[in-house]
Amino acid sequence: MTLQASQLIDLGPDDCLVAFTSAPYAVATQRVALLAKEARAKVIAVTDTPISAVGQIADVILAAASTGAGLQNSFVASMAIANALLNGVAAADSELTLARYGRLAKVLGRLDAFLLKADDAE
Description:
The chain is built from five helices and three strands. By secondary structure, the protein is of the alpha/beta class. Helix 2 (27-38) links the parallel strand 1 and strand 2. The N and C termini lie far apart (41 Å).
């Protein structure tokens, strides 16, 4: 919650929160979405039903089927939506995205972050 709180204090009308929620619906997700709305940020709900607590306050609802029961739900649909959103944001400014990914790759290389190296994947 501390990380969320530190990020929420800077939310404003030019920002957008993407909230992922499905049964049994985490209280923290709803509270963060409410705080985002209070800050006049847009809220996108990726949820299993538009009548979920977050769905009811969202500006945009992206339906994501959630299969399973309780804490053992499958989030494959939600992850597909997250991937599509990420690709859309990246495509909106592809030059900036590629530059950022280049810088990130250099940092990860310096940190020796992965067991499988790019040369090993060929």
